């Protein structure tokens, strides 16, 4: 009995000693990361300096800096620095691994890669004004064989339309099932792609017959907003600052860019149009077009179209935001409209 009791006592003592040592061992919460940029925003190519602050600072024997889990710098003091080589705008996952008394401890944070590009402000001239169906809640707008295609939204009212842009006459119409809220459209490989908003589903039609070829499910948990293509890939906005790049053959997302105007994200990028190597994008609730570099996401230009509002007549329902950009390659002009607008404006950007 006495031996068994002594064993229990020694066991308790060992447990208490282990608990005391564990409590005194450094933990990630004991380390604070301080940056040479107070808001943790950086430009590509600039130097990032991270200082590790802790009561264990004098015991740190090594520091490693990881960006997006790639080792970019090492140090032996309580700070480390590296030149930011990343080019994709947006958040970069950051991890600092410190070695204290032979033990490795990781502290995580993130920094944001922004741009210092000042966008050029473009002006325009109205060349022509054409009629537009005021019942159309415009979501997609694109020329195909010099005929205007339009995708409209709202559940129970969503359609795919083929229109004579000069007269506004609807030449062909396809109505979506009432459960779907239609969104952006684009034509590639002789196929019409159409997105839906919250349903996570898209449709592919034969561009000649409009026969449904396929329904597809988004391979990301995102919404469907705007759509355009560069002849090889589709670009798909989702209501955030992201524009996704989609393989039209597999409907899989193969990349994305984050849209930035200076140091700020531009969210709710909506209807899209590919124009001479750039993406022209409407921004929800803004009567302006952002001209976006598709490789970097940088807004390189702004086209303010707010003056068009005064030229649109009120109806029932009342005209809503600008949302519709179609580029006519033969004339190198833009055709723009909005939700419930009674007009389409052909403009020359200058």
From TrEMBL:
It holds the Pfam family Glu_cyclase_2. InterPro entries: QCT, Quino_amine_DH_bsu. Keywords: Transferase. One of its GO terms (molecular function) is glutaminyl-peptide cyclotransferase activity. SUPFAM superfamilies: YVTN repeat-like/Quinoprotein amine dehydrogenase (SSF50969). This is Glutamine cyclotransferase. It comes from Flavobacterium aurantiibacter. The lineage of its organism: Bacteria, Pseudomonadati, Bacteroidota, Flavobacteriia, Flavobacteriales.
